[in-house]
Design brief:
Layout lengths: L31 H6 L10 E8 L5 E3 L7 E3 L1 H13 L4 E7 L19 H12 L4 E6 L21 H18 L3 E4 L6 H11 L7 E8 L6 H7 L18 H13 L4 E5 L5 H10 L5 E4 L2 H12 L5 H15 L3 E3 L3 H10 L1
Parallel strand pairs: 1-3, 1-4, 1-10, 4-5, 5-6, 6-7, 7-8, 8-9, 9-10
Antiparallel strand pairs: 2-3
The structure holds ligand PBG and zinc ion (ZN) (2 copies).
The site of one zinc ion has 3 residues, from loops.
């Protein structure tokens, strides 16, 4: 209520206005179903993509200390595990290769698309075991390079763009040939979307392989547990020359616009809850494309740590984070919470 500065106004019951009809919002959300109806976008099992770490030791099943509940899997062990999740409604996975063999890493990431390597073997095995499962592959070199960077390097440690982009396209095409339904380059080397799209076209696979670009991938402090899990921390330097600076909203917008131009079929924002404005930008710039966000290892580990401390309730906070992403404009979420959500969504 406005005051004129001199006379102090004290409200009394006689001032009470009849309640405005438009002020009563609670009638619209007093029931659990109504609360669901308020969601512009729903979290469903189809919204979830589960990341899996696959090693070159086919019988491996090793818990990852920094990622509660997550494991490194060998191809023989991962197939029955994924089958059990498909039975609960899992629709999509994204595969990361974790080569452990002594000689697995070199400057060209040769093992990334080794026909007997973990990613290609797992694509083929899952295509057979789970014919309805959507199989995505992360495309990057850092898990397979001796130096742990995401491209091919010059002597001075900088990325050779043309050579890296050709190599990334070859890796992506080999994943598509093995049966991947989607390739998702996370390297952030300029021009790779065009090169991969051209590669898929040349191989006659562009019509049956989606190209999901990690367009807006930020360099921050949230990938630590993943780099532990995948053994992909750079041996020197960092990724700041190719991943975006956390304040770089303009760069993210330019990268998204460029990747649409270059032929991306979907746009990803990574990490997720620290970058909701970027998700909303992606939805605006790529309004006709599916928008995906990656709730990364550090976000997942933080929520778990907070829950263990009793600061938050895990399930409640997991939903709250997911709805933040959906509200901002994402319809797809890559999350380590996927197995939990498959159970939680059934409880409703
Ligand atoms: N380029 C590799 C890659 N692909 C996905 C992630 C991060 C996923 C996560 O933290 O959960 C990373 C790590 C990185 O860029 O260092
Ligand atoms: Zn990488
Ligand atoms: Zn990657």
């Amino acid at each position: 209520m406005a005051t004129n500065g001199t006379k102090k106004h004290v409200a009394t019951y006689t001032d009470a206005q009849p309640t405005q009809i438009s002020s009563i919002l609670s009638g619209g959300y007093h029931h659990p179903l109504l609360r669901q109806w308020q969601n512009e976008r729903q979290l469903t099992k189809s919204s979830l993509i589960y990341p899996l770490f696959i090693t070159d030791n086919e019988d491996e099943e090793t818990p990852i200390d920094s990622l509660p509940g997550q494991k490194r899997w060998g191809v023989k062990k991962v197939v029955p595990y994924v089958e059990s999740l498909v039975a609960k409604g899992l629709k999509a996975v994204i595969l990361f290769g974790v080569p452990l063999a002594e000689d697995a890493k070199d400057p060209y990431a040769t093992s990334a698309d080794d026909p007997n390597g973990p990613v290609i073997l797992t694509i083929k095995a899952l295509r057979v075991a789970c014919p309805d499962l959507f199989i995505m592959t992360d495309v990057c070199m850092c898990e397979y390079t001796s130096h742990g960077h995401c491209g091919i390097l010059r002597e001075d440690g900088t990325i050779i763009r043309e050579e890296s982009v050709r190599r990334l396209a070859a890796i992506a095409v080999n994943y598509a040939k093995a049966g991947a339904h989607c390739v998702a380059p996370s390297d952030m080397v300029d021009g790779r979307i065009l090169a991969i799209k051209q590669g898929l076209l040349d191989a006659g696979l562009a019509h049956k392989c989606m190209l999901m670009s990690y367009s807006a991938k930020f360099s921050g402090n949230l990938y630590g547990p993943f780099r532990d899990a995948a053994g992909s921390a750079p041996s020197f330097g960092d990724r700041k020359c190719y991943q975006l600076p956390p304040g770089g909203r303009g760069l993210a917008r330019r990268a998204i616009a460029r990747d649409i131009e270059e032929g991306a079929d979907g746009i990803m924002v990574k990490p997720s809850t620290f970058y909701l404005d970027i998700i909303s930008d992606a939805k605006e710039l790529a309004r006709d494309l599916p928008i995906c966000t990656y709730q990364v290892s550090g976000e997942f580990a933080m929520l778990h740590a907070a829950a263990e401390k009793g600061v938050v309730d895990l399930k409640t906070i997991a939903y709250e984070a997911a709805y933040g992403c959906l509200r901002a404009g994402a319809t797809l979420i890559i999350t380590y919470f996927t197995p939990d959500f498959l159970d939680w969504l059934d409880e409703q």
